[in-house]
Amino acid sequence: MLRTAIAVVLLSAASGVPAENIETLTERSQEQARAVLDRAVEANGGAEALRDVKVVRLRLQGQVFPRLQMTTPAPPFEGGSFDETLLFDLENNRLRLDQKAGGFGFDGDNTIAIAGGAGNAYDNRAKTVTPIPAEQASQQQFIQYHRRLPTLLLRSALDRTNSLRYLGEDQFEGRRHEVVTFVMPDTQQIALYVDAQTGLISKYELLFVDSLEGVEASEIVFGDYRKVGNFQVPRRWSNRQLGEDQTRYTVQAEFNPPVTDESFRVAAAGYQEVKPVPTSLEEKVDRLADGVYVIQNVAGQNQNTLAVGFADHVVAVEAPGSSEGADAVIKRIHELFPGKPIRYVAMTHHHGDHIGGMRSFIAEGATVVTTAANRPVIETMAASRQNDRLGREPRAPAFLMLEDGRRVLKDGTRELQLIDIGPNPHAKEMVIAWLPAEKVVFQGDLFFVPNNGAPFGPPQPSTASFAAKLRELGLPFERVASVHGDTATAAQFREATAAAN
């Protein structure tokens, strides 16, 4: 029987009859997606014209309304300003990016220039120049800028056709769209919505993790197209998250403008060169006093939590990062204070990077200490469906509210004061933690110690307001600890805020 079976196989092979080519679902999906991409490419000038783009000059101007980063947790929101000019040499891997932004307690004026595999970041307020490490000045650094324009997205998709997949049809703004996805070199998976009638890209989507709702789609919406040379270019550019605009920009684009090496150089006479920003920060515990610790970079890079031990419990101040990061912080707190439960978790303000780990502390059984306006944010966050400890074992958050702008937690061993120093330009309700015996202030987003030894530069509006409030309160602090960055001495803080006095 075995000899007979072998003979049959050999006979079939010798006959030269090809095996049936059964098209798989993946093959069909890629084929459909390629057809949609080809239509979009043709509607936008054709593949030859797209590949002939060597240089792009792009300007975005408008307002920003970043989710969970506004001065208030609920509307009406105050928008910030944004003005960006990008000069992007695709052929020679060079770019110059000039950005000015304002709002939410911060003013920014920065320039990034990269050429020849090296680059610098210029802070035009502080007059400093920071080298960009070679690994950050590589091709990967450039990929994000391909997502600024449909023209560049289509070029990228043409270079990554093997990753194309067809998702199906969907309605967007009352029109039928075909949706395809592809993977960019920085591993971002992009879903393109191609208008079935015009072939133009109406939007693309990226997935992100929202602090309140979990995994959501960020929508970058293009509108009001006009012809620029061979290409269709949107005059409106917005970013929506959970149905709300995060940005509203006008767009100006120019293709293949004349450039020289000088176009990518920055006049920086009088600027101080500082060390590169570290690419990775060490997880560590900063002991400020017996039973007082700042747990640094455990929740995530540049994300810190203050842990304060009392006789029979612990108070955590700030829950940054994510549920996973907060689980690691909670584990570290139990190692520092064995046998003591985390009874309270306080938050400085409502921004997403400061409450991203709050669900884990609620699951731990900690009571949330906050202000009245921030309570609904935490209730919404706790009620969302997410795959974490709280999702697996739901429980409603318990609250302890600040009253008349203050809440004092104390026993016979220690006192911790939580003080609302708002309104601050960064957040209308802004809480600091004050340890009178230890003379330590803990704050979030109001003051930063540069982690590369750079000078402080002019104080930001949020920092100037913070300094004024500390003087008004008359707190005799000796150190200022931070949610982001290392702990500063009082002398460093005075140096950084001298210009604000």
Structural commentary:
This protein has about 500 residues and is an alpha+beta fold. The chain is built from twelve helices and 27 strands. The chain has helices spanning about 1-15, 25-45, 45-50, 140-145, 150-160, 325-335, 350-355, 360-365, 375-385, 390, 460-475, 490-495, and strands at about 55-65, 80-90, 95-105, 105-115, 120-125, 130, 165-170, 175-185, 190-195, 200-210, 215-230, 230-240, 245-255, 270-275, 285-290, 290-295, 305-310, 315, 340-345, 365-370, 400, 405-410, 415-420, 430-435, 440-445, 480, 490. The strands form three sheets. Strands 7-8-9-10-11-12-13-1-2-3-4-5-6-14 form a 14-stranded mixed beta sheet. A seven-stranded mixed beta sheet has the order 15-16-17-18-19-20-21, covered by helices on one side. A six-stranded mixed beta sheet has the order 22-23-24-25-26-27. The N and C termini lie far apart (about 95 Å).
How many alpha or pi helices? Answer: 12
Number of strands: 27
Averaged pLDDT, please?
Answer: 93
**Basic shape:** globular
Separation, N- and C-terminal Cα atoms: 97 Å
Query: SS-based structural class?
Result: alpha+beta
Which ranges are low-confidence, i.e. pLDDT below 50, for 5 or more consecutive residues?
Answer: 1-15
Q: Describe the sheet with the most strands.
A: 14 strands, mixed
Instruction: Assess the beta-strand content as a share of residues.
Output: 35-45%
The level of helicity is: 10-25%
How are the strands of the largest sheet arranged?
A: 7-8-9-10-11-12-13-1-2-3-4-5-6-14
Rg, rounded, reads 27 Å
